[in-house]
Design brief:
Chain A: This is Glycosyl transferase family 28 C-terminal domain-containing protein. The complex is a heterodimer. By secondary structure, chain A is an alpha/beta fold. Helices cover 33% and strands 16% of the residues of chain A. The longest helix of chain A has 11 residues, at 190-200. Chain B is globular, with a radius of gyration of 16 Å. The chains are: A alpha/beta, B alpha/beta.
Chain lengths: 204, 188
Amino acid sequence: MQKPTKDGLSSNRDKRGSPGALFEALKPGMGGRVFVTVGTTRFDELIRAVDSHEVSNILRSRGHDALVVQKGSGEYKMHNLLAKDEAATTLANGLKVECFDFLPSIADHIASASLVICHAGAGSIFEGLRAGKRLVVIPNTSLMDNHQIELAHHLEHLGHLVCASPETLPSVLSRLDDTIFVPFEKGSPHGIVTAIDRLVGFSN
Amino acid sequence: MQVKYGSPPECVRTMAVLGSGGHTTEMLTLMEALNRSRYTPRCYVVADTDSLSAARATEKERNWGTLETMQMSKIPRSREVGQPFVTSVWTTLYAFFWCVKLVWDYKPQLLLLNGPGTCIPVCVMALMFRLMGLMDLKIVYFESIARVSSLSLSGKIIYQARMADVFLVQWETLLAKYPRAKCLGRLF
């Protein structure tokens, strides 16, 4: 599964010890995993944006120890962070990287992540928010009739998530302030159910 | 809303239109919350190209243990995403004739809609039978949670033509623009 590279975690521990190093603030296990998902769609621009050493260093410096990418049906291969035909690795900076296309359920991956980076699909957004995760959402601007951008921007306006673009992802991630996320209050079908019950005459 | 039934009904024949994207997820979330021993039997309507929605609804019903009180009806899709308008006129007409038979055979007492293109012909047929006095049914439309500042095309048609007895949105931001809509909370 996760095969360590030549200088994997041990060399990273050395770097962390050096004063003023990038990994100064790194606390093992504090940052947790980062999960990237495009849902059932394809969104190569998002995967390409994540597939960079700049992003991997930013995530590492923020204390994250793993980057798990669900890339969907897109054609882009993560050739920068992963070697050819490699599904998982550990980078020189200590970040574990893993990539897969689809899973029947990504609930476990969302549950075990501390940060979720996803497309603006309502399914992915609400799955992340309802699990209480910090979300960075990248709307796919190439879609036609893209009302989902509205949803992402509205939820950003309410403080529940942060929007980015493939270009701004590194700067958004490095500036990310964990305290700005307003806790998301889960919705409930109760009000709608009551209205329907009343309409058809089920009063109790 | 005044209820026409003389005494409270025991159960209500329910028809729900599914659709790809988030529509099916939201409809099944609502269905899960409804008392299915009273909203029975249930007929799910799907576009025949949308086998995923059909499979998901069947799977849910199996998990609820209520598979024997549901049925699945597949109708020709009225408009594929990105289909040219001219050819969509023909496929829409074809879908309408299917819907006449579908609605007449099932005779729903409650129609649940949330936005896929397929819901328009079903809604129009149900309304037509109601206007002719052949059916007594209620129509509920709830807009997708993905709609924050404008309604979907189906939502606009149903809102403007006042087709639904209850028209719901999931964000209060829509109420200023659509004052006849109600916001009774989010599904998620």
